From TrEMBL:
Membrane topology, from the record: Multi-pass membrane protein
Pfam family, one: ABC2_membrane_3
Protein family per UniProt: Belongs to the ABC-2 integral membrane protein family.
Gene Ontology MF annotations: ABC-type transporter activity
Keywords, comma-separated and alphabetical: Cell membrane, Membrane, Transmembrane, Transmembrane helix, Transport
Residues of the ABC transmembrane type-2 domain: 128-366
GO cellular component: ATP-binding cassette (ABC) transporter complex
Family matches, as InterPro entries: ABC-2_transporter_component, ABC2_TM, ABC2_TM_bact-type, ABC_2_transport
Protein name: Transport permease protein
């Protein structure tokens, strides 16, 4: 019995000394529950909307003030004409436009009813529905306050218009999101085991004494997977278009360029994981556990980033998948050009350069 207790005690010492095991046992559950608890929500918060007020009277101003005071919406800008609506939707920052008709207060007082149009960016149908319901609730609350001393009561009619996805097909969100997740995880996992495989097979020494410099080794590891991942992307897009009816409103050339750029970003991240891992098992764990949850939760694929706490919103900016989802939705659903998505494109290019540069640095360290 003493031998058994001694053996168990030894195992406890081994576990406590292994920082990775301690992190998996205690760190990962805490990180996951915090991430899921704060990020997973069907509510919306701080959604950017725009106002088009043709009437500009005291009643519309009261409604605008009530919406602005709500934690659900942030009035990003006020526009002057309908021609501006599509351009601000294409930029992706504004999710809805509230349009007040001419002579709003006059119609309310004389006809006892007035009209408000809610125009939403329906590339994400769930968010579009939620926005409409929240705005309707605020308008009804305002009417209850106004109608306390009015007989007959006033009415506000809400007209809804959906941009880019009038039928509210969830597949319009599903296909870009799944394509992003698959390309990110598969590409990163494939390359994350490339250099660690060399170490485990004992062929790393051959690379170390070869005339190839670190940049050539890194690019050589990445290049074959670019071709394979491009085939993956083509298959996903083909299924999306011909099986699920996913539209491609923008340029195919631009879509191909952005997809290849994202693939290279994911592959370079995988190479970075590979250079800092000692075994294929460690590399797979880092690529799966370290990428899967952030890509799914913090990319905006399923849950709106604007509804998350500020720290998670900040962290989401370092997730490459977030920027690619914005890009692919803008191209496929909105027909956006490079003038609209240049910022997101530059961010992906910057991330790629950073990952490759850091991989080369880590590789050089191992050469010494």
């Amino acid at each position: 019995m003493k031998r058994f207790i001694g053996f168990v005690t030894k195992e406890f010492y081994h576990i406590f000394r292994d920082k990775r095991s301690m992190f998996i046992l205690f760190g990962m559950p805490i990180a996951q529950i915090m991430l899921f608890g704060f990020a997973i929500t069907n509510e919306i918060n701080n959604v950017n909307i725009a106002i088009l007020d043709h009437s500009k009277d005291t009643e519309t101003q009261k409604i605008i003030n009530k919406i602005s005071a709500s934690p659900y919406f942030h009035i990003e800008q006020e526009i002057s004409s309908e021609t501006q609506i599509e351009s601000i939707f294409k930029k992706g920052k504004v999710k809805a436009v509230l349009v007040f008709q001419n002579h709003f207060i006059k119609d309310l007082q004389t006809k006892k009813q007035a009209k408000v149009q809610v125009i939403t960016d329906a590339t994400d149908p769930n968010i579009a529905n939620t926005i409409t319901n929240y705005i309707n609730a605020i308008l009804q609350n305002h009417l209850q306050e106004v109608n306390r001393n009015n007989l007959p009561t006033y009415q506000i009619q809400t007209q809804t218009q959906l941009y880019y996805n009038p039928e509210l097909k969830s597949v319009f969100t599903f296909v870009p999101g799944v394509m992003t997740v698959i390309l990110m995880l598969v590409s990163a996992m494939m390359t994350s085991i490339s250099i660690t495989r060399e170490k485990e097979l004992g062929t790393m020494e051959v690379l170390l004494v070869s005339p190839l410099n670190p940049l050539q080794v890194i690019l050589g590891k990445v290049f074959p997977y670019i071709f394979l991942s491009v085939i993956n992307a083509i298959v996903i897009l083909t299924l999306g278009v011909f099986v699920f009816g996913m539209p491609i409103q923008g340029s195919l050339f631009l879509l191909a360029f952005e997809s290849i750029l994202f693939i290279i970003t994911a592959l370079s991240l995988g190479i970075l994981i590979s250079t800092v891992s000692d075994s294929q098992q460690t590399a797979m764990m880092l690529s799966l556990m370290g990428l899967m949850l952030p890509v799914i939760i913090l990319s905006g694929f399923i849950f709106p980033i604007s509804s998350m706490p500020l720290p998670l919103q900040i962290i989401s900016n370092i997730i490459p998948a977030k920027w690619f989802i914005i890009i692919i939705k803008a191209i496929m659903l909105k027909g956006a050009s490079i003038q609209i998505i240049w910022k997101e494109t530059l961010i992906l290019i910057g991330m790629t350069v950073f990952f490759i540069g850091l991989s080369i640095k880590k590789y050089k360290i191992r050469l010494e």
